[in-house]
Design goal:
347 residues; alpha+beta; Helix Hairpins; Heat Shock Protein 90; 3 domains; five-stranded mixed beta sheet; two-stranded antiparallel sheet; 10 helices; 7 strands; elongated
Length: 347
């Protein structure tokens, strides 16, 4: 049988010419009873038919196929591509050409889907950035306008308004600093200064530095029992301190009054240390878990709460951990709490 799936143009031309030459040769033999004439007729039709059909295939069908390939590549053919079109492409079967086109279509569909996602992400990013900038800017504008319209003469009012203006300016400054930092991180400009240190020591330092904020909501900061034994990690100490500070701040912001934030550290496989921070706060709905590390992304519940911050903390944490060649993850349930964990290289 003819291998129909991978039949080449030459093979197709040969079998087509053969299917014409055999009956004609038999017909000549039956009518003339001369086997030499029948063989000559058979060979002439076989050879002529083969060349004609092959020429037709290459001239018309594969000419169209070459145009399809050039359209797929969307560029003027290079010398290498012209060689491919001239010598390799004609050897391909129609099924192989179809598979090439289908592969291109699948890849093109993926690219279009990625572009759509990026466009949606860009729109959300601009919307969120506008929201984050609008709040402090409008507040500053309101305080300044009030002062210029007469409140400047009242010492008690002008001092209070100037303090609030300064607070919003600080918020705006921190936002711009975070934007600059995350831009540097995304460009791959972060230079890590790795060294060996005890991860529990850094956690304790972070807890002490933010204890005043935790006391305002009566939130207890602690290291989980059984995780006190010193574990050495090899990483950029200051960057990891920044990650831990951002995570603890988030746990306090979205934590419940009289709640707790617990840090735990585990030696997972002999070469990596897992660090986790758990709280018993409002939690994150499951549908939002895949997006919490995006820039400015906040859940509806998070936006409704009166919390400050640039909205870039988790995105910065993600970039820092990934710059270490490690991973960061989050687990959460509504009204139960959230756990954020990341891995680091063991010393």
């Amino acid at each position: 049988m003819i291998p129909a799936k991978n039949i080449s143009p030459r093979l197709l031309s040969f079998f087509t010419a053969l299917s014409m030459a055999v009956p004609v040769g038999l017909l000549v033999f039956i009518l003339e009873r001369k086997w030499v004439l029948a063989v000559v007729t058979f060979l002439v039709i076989l050879g002529g038919g083969y060349l004609l059909i092959l020429w037709m295939l290459e001239k018309f069908i594969y000419r169209k196929i070459k145009l399809i390939y050039k359209f797929i590549q969307q560029t003027k053919a290079t010398r290498k591509e012209e060689t491919y079109f001239k010598y390799i492409l004609p050897q391909k079967s129609m099924d192989e050409v179809r598979e090439d086109v289908e592969a291109w279509a699948r890849e093109n569909t993926k690219e279009i889907e990625l572009l759509r996602k990026n466009e949606q992400f860009r729109k959300e990013f601009l919307q969120n950035l506008s929201h984050e900038l609008k709040t402090p800017v409008f507040a500053i504008q309101g305080y300044v306008d009030t002062l210029l319209n007469g409140a400047l003469e009242n010492r008690e009012v002008n001092r209070r308004f100037l303090e609030k203006t300064a607070t919003n300016i600080s918020r705006l400054t921190n936002l711009l600093i975070d934007l600059d930092q995350i831009s540097s991180l995304e460009r791959g400009e972060l230079r890590l200064q790795k060294k060996t240190f005890i991860i529990q020591d850094v956690v304790k330092e972070v807890f002490e530095s933010i204890s005043i904020v935790a006391e305002q909501k009566n939130i207890q900061l602690s290291i989980k029992k059984g995780c006190e034994s010193p574990l050495s990690v090899y990483a950029d100490k200051e960057r990891i301190r920044q990650v831990l500070l951002n995570l603890v701040e988030n746990s306090i912001k979205y934590g419940k009054t009289n709640g707790s934030v617990v840090a735990s550290m585990y030696n997972v496989d002999g070469s990596h240390i897992l660090v986790e921070l758990s709280d018993d706060g409002i939690g994150i709905p499951e549908k939002h878990l895949q997006r919490v590390f995006e820039r400015f992304y906040r859940t509806d519940e998070g936006r409704s709460m009166d919390v400050t911050g640039s909205g870039l903390g988790l995105a910065i944490c993600k970039h820092i951990i990934e710059a270490h060649g490690q991973t960061i993850h989050v687990r959460s349930r509504e009204d139960i709490g959230t756990t954020v964990g990341f891995t680091l290289d063991k010393r």
